[in-house]
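Structure in, sequence out. Go:
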């Protein structure tokens, strides 16, 4: 059973150095500074119109520099990042102030191919594991290994503003496993939670990549190598300008959760004006919603699988009163 996560509207600024915090890294997909929309005409840095029907990549080898130069390594975890799944739960750790984050894009060599020291057949992973089978596929067999990043859709090949040329970039190879290191302004969202909010800029990731004429490119060299090298030379990952050490939204009352087997119970206390709730998963799908009418209360959700969820309470005007991020 996980430790209870308490959320308070009053941010506490002094903690014991042994205090445990839930740490989340959010990699919000952006294009030209706005939220990325799939299956929608958008424009790249050179004014080329294109759209995307998929954009997925792996993140691994995460480490955090914190509290005056201490290093926290989360090197044994691989995350799959998708446009509708950009929140990575880095775990519960004794961290107060995060100074820098380092992570690599892709699957590390020891897990990537048949020659990897810790590699196993893809079919041996549980169905919900990031290294299991994905749709669209992120794996090209024992020899070639995993695709670090895939991106595909259509681009405008004749500058008439209409997308007409299919492109697919499937980027493989241990040599294309690149690392990002960035200073961090953390957000102390709640008493027991730290958020690191970052952008993943698609337009910078495909900068100078001729997607209108690329067609299907599946490999380790040429354009596949160039797009992965943009991680090193362009601001593919950065922090939003409004990154702040304090949460942007004030909250009312307290929320907390507890687990019992597959059941998840959410409790609230002193949430004045609570009128309705919504319980959603990390992909934005509504698991449950309904009316509430109590200053204090609780709801139990049954058969909740492992993952990241959000529970929110609203007033009669549908204004959000409080929100709880849950890592089960």
């Amino acid at each position: 059973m996980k430790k209870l996560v308490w959320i308070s509207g009053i941010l506490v600024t002094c903690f014991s150095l042994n205090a445990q915090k839930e740490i989340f890294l959010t990699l919000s997909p952006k294009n030209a500074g706005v939220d990325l929309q799939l299956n929608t005409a958008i424009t790249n840095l050179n004014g080329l119109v294109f759209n995307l029907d998929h954009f997925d990549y792996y993140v691994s080898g995460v480490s955090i520099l914190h509290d005056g130069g201490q290093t926290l390594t989360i090197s044994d975890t691989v995350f799959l990042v998708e446009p509708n799944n950009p929140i990575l739960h880095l775990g519960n750790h004794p961290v107060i102030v995060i100074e820098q984050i380092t992570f690599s894009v892709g699957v590390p060599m020891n897990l990537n191919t048949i020659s990897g020291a810790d590699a196993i057949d893809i079919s041996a992973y549980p169905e919900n594991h990031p290294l299991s089978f994905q749709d669209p596929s992120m794996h090209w067999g024992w020899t070639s290994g995993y695709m670090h990043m895939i991106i595909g859709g259509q681009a405008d090949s004749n500058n008439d503003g209409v997308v007409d040329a299919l492109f697919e970039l499937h980027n493989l190879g241990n040599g294309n496993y690149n690392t990002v290191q960035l200073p961090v302004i953390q957000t102390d969202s709640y008493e027991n939670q730290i958020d690191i909010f970052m952008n993943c800029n698609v337009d910078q990731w495909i900068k100078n990549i001729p997607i209108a004429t690329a067609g299907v490119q599946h490999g380790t060299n040429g354009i596949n190598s160039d797009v992965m090298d943009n991680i090193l030379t362009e601001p593919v990952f950065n922090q939003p300008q409004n990154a702040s050490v304090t949460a942007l939204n004030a909250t009312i009352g307290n929320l907390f959760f507890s687990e019992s087997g597959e059941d998840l119970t959410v409790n609230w206390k002193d949430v004045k004006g609570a009128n309705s709730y919504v319980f959603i998963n990390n992909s934005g799908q509504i698991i449950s919603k309904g009316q509430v009418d109590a200053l204090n209360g609780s709801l139990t959700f049954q058969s909740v699988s492992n993952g990241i969820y959000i529970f929110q309470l609203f007033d009669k005007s549908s204004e959000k009163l409080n929100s709880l991020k849950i890592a089960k």
